[in-house]
Amino acid sequence: MKEIGTQKVIRVHSTDNVAVALQEVAAGEQLMLPDQTVIAVDAIPFGHKIALCQLDSGTDVRKFGAPFGVTTCTIARGAHVHTHNVSTSLSAIDSYTYEPHLQAKELADEPATALTFQGYRRSDGRVATRNEIWIVSTVGCVSRTADRIAAAAAEQFAGKVDGIYSIKHPYGCSQLGDDLEYTQTILAGLIDHPNAGGVLVLGLGCETNQLASLLTQVSGKETKRIRYFNAQAVDDELAAGVEAIAELVQLAKQDRRVECPLSELTIGLKCGGSDGFSGLSANPLLGKVWDKVTRAHGRAILTEIPEMFGAERQLMNRCVDQRVFGRLVNVVNDFKQYLIDHGQTVYENPSPGNSAGGITTLEEKSLGATQKAGASLVSDVLRYGEAVRKTGLSILEAPGNDGVSSTAMVAGGATVLLFTTGRGTPLGFPVPTIKVSSNSAIAAKKPHWIDFNAGELLQGADLDKLADELLAKVLKVASGEWVCNEISGEREIAIWKRGVTL
């Protein structure tokens, strides 16, 4: 990250032909950069881009040292650069060549950190950041019943465990084939999650997502920590639910936090509601934090496959071997084919909020989003619903949708989520969801949403120092400190629906 100080605009990389406005810029304003002075031809909104030279029609526009689109007309020096004069260069299915000589240095060879946190060590060796009781519903028909059981049990057993929560969704009924399989896979991953010291699986009885079938997919959790029943099979489902949770609480309340090395942490890396600063501040900050965790041989999950389009080659060349490279190529092209099969273009992004925040094309969004991956190698590639199996950075197949991708990371084993945002969102998930703002304005406006402000980087804060502060925050949260989503009760899941419903 370059020293920014009081500059009004920043050029991210020396080869870029645009700069990003750190403040609102008025037309006619003179802007000072380290190597040149530019007069703004247009008003440039906060987070948007200004041309540093004349860009003829058909010219590659560069940010982060890479092209993110092509000009659709001649753009004057000092003019506003955005969707009105730049288009994507993305195409459909691509062929890729593995070029590992371009890959990142192996950070694991550098001195490791001895940092620790206070976690719950489970019988299978995994370490949790919370010791909660979860009620997982098989079908949407019992969602409100799950809520009622959770509320009654939370009141009765307050203080015995870290919390009692319902995990509900609208699916499980009339689903067929792959659609049912995806629902069961995600739910099984949640039932198996280490942060759940006990799980009540609540069924209805007549749904296609049958309780018995779902439970066969749960492999890691001790059977004594799972209770289940169908609501149609009992006289009083509320009483039966509270009784089952009472048994789970008796087990879970005996669990204690113990000192665990940083290597036992599994972090999910996510961005949502991004703006023009996300790739300049919050996402690089996450990347720096992840590099520190890499040195400790920890685990991280990166997802949002369509938000890699345009930057995927950088990740592919960081794969540890040809096999992992091949898996990533397949996941990327399969997702492109998924869009094509549904009559959609592969570049139907960024969202309206992203665009308003200054992101012009999917390539620009991807180049900023992948900053979360730091400089480490890609050790594994997972299909949707698969769980982390290796140390290092795993790339997980899932869409960019915040709910679906974050849920997939939790089901895959993430015990903490690091979630960057420039526009802001209250959304949270079943594990602590640490919100990191890309700018100070949203942090000041929404302190009940934002847990950490990366916008300080835009005022000249030191990247390494701020990364140390964020990592310290992560360890406190992993040790039990609550974050905004937990305080406000924002805990959701979403399942990727791409099959058939009767």
Descriptive account of the structure:
This protein is α/β, with parallel strands linked by helices and 502 residues long. The chain folds into 3 domains: 9-87, Roll (Archaeosine Trna-guanine Transglycosylase, Chain: A, domain 4), CATH 2.30.130.110; 133-254, Rossmann fold; 259-501. The chain is built from 13 helices and 25 strands. It has helices at 143-156, 177-191, 211-215, 237-252, 282-295, 312-316, 322-341, 352-356, 362-369, 402-411, 440-445, 463-478, 484-488, and strands at 9-10, 18-21, 30-32, 37-39, 49-51, 60-63, 66-71, 80-81, 86-87, 116-121, 127-128, 132-137, 164-167, 175-176, 196-203, 226-230, 258-261, 266-271, 299-302, 378-382, 392-396, 416-421, 433-437, 452-453, 500-501. The strands form 7 sheets. A 7-stranded parallel β-sheet has the order 20-21-19-18-22-23-24, sandwiched between helices. Strands 1-2-5-8 form a 4-stranded antiparallel β-sheet, with no helix packed on it. It has a 4-stranded parallel β-sheet with strand order 13-12-15-16, with helices on both faces. Helix 1 (143-156) packs across helix 4 and helix 5 crosses helix 12. The protein is globular, with a radius of gyration of 23 Å. The termini are far apart. Mean pLDDT is 92; it is low at 1-5.
